[in-house]
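Before relying on records like the one below, remember that each one covers exactly one chain. Contacts with other chains, cofactors or solvent are not represented anywhere in the record.
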Amino acid sequence: MNRLFAWLLNLAYLSAILLALPWLGWSALKYGKYREGFAAKLLGRVPLRRGGLPCVWLHAVSVGEVNLLGPLLDALRASRPNWEFVISTTTKTGFDLARKEYPGQTVFYCPLDFSWATRRAMQRVRPSLLVLAELELWPNLIQAARSRGARVAIVNGRLSDTSLRNYRRLRPLVARVLREVDVVAAQNAETAHRFRLLGADPRAVHVTGSLKFDRAQTIRNNEKTRTLRTLAGLAEGDIVFLAGSTQNPEEECAICTFQELVQDHPQLKLVLVPRHPQRFNEVASLLDQSGLPWIRRTELNALHRPLSSPKSVILVDSVGELGDWWGAATAGFVGGSFGSRGGQNMLEPAAYGVATCFGPNTRNFRDIVSQLLAARGAEVVTDQQSLSRFVRRVLEDPTWAEALGQRAHDLVVSQQGATERTVDLLLRPLGAIDSIPAPSAA
């Protein structure tokens, strides 16, 4: 029955790929996506791990999940220094960031959920534990791990309203997969209830809090932020308005806000950080049309020295630096919240004490948003005009802005500790493992 189920899934995946082939080809040609890792993705030819030490395979889909792994990986390595750790990702941006952030670790593309690819990947890696960040319910991958005797865990588990609705339509399938998961570390009680509702073993589901609170940097004067400020030529009196993780049309809203305010506040600077690399050139065209003096982040590197004549606007066209740029901001807008995306991570600016706002569409971070609003640590803006009013108040009422940021900072600090609770859950059933079977050359 398991084999039939696996091959039915294979057929469904192949059908979906065939239907999406024109779009995949267009994305590969226009944006350079999906061009790498074919052997790993389609055949499971991931790096062959040699030796018999226990191994933890951590899977992070893209940039957000890769960033999330930092404190968890550090804590796991500190607790089990003799174990091995490998990281898989799905996207190219996630892959590039993982190699940059975790240079001592093996990083590879996760196989697509075909039974032959996942089976071969498990034979080559031989993990003791497969850790899936947030929610990656791939039936064949999970089954391949269990067939090899590995435990399976979901960490920082979350289920948005949309995900819950979609999964409930497939509840028999989802319940079957969730029953194979040994540990679900949920961000909050509501998410834990949703996992149980979908069929997870109640004994496997635990509330640990959000790892994102632990990942958040709380010290503005950190080395990476200082380096970026110096490189950008930002002076002590400059006030940075940062719009981060933006999507269309949020960059245009931020540019209009900046143009409206900079005449009366010449110390104001704008930093734009689009969510997706494929939009860097699109945002560059917007800046060209604006007539504002601006520079790309990558051009700062080429100067090999701090910018002597600072530009009004910096377009951050690099991946993985947003968290460090937030430390330079006084006012912040968190993108993905004016459109349909459902918002992006607002904990990073909150942790620094940035006066933070975001749009009304933040369903992906509903719990965090409700905590921030209840603590009066952030504001909701509905359009470009209300964004301008928010930034103007930050500029003209610094006492109000500082209090707003301080309340957000205090909330983040009070919520930290999820990493320790998660590590305890992950290692509890693995404490006696000292070795695993010899490697296979599959």
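The longest strand covers residues 239-246.
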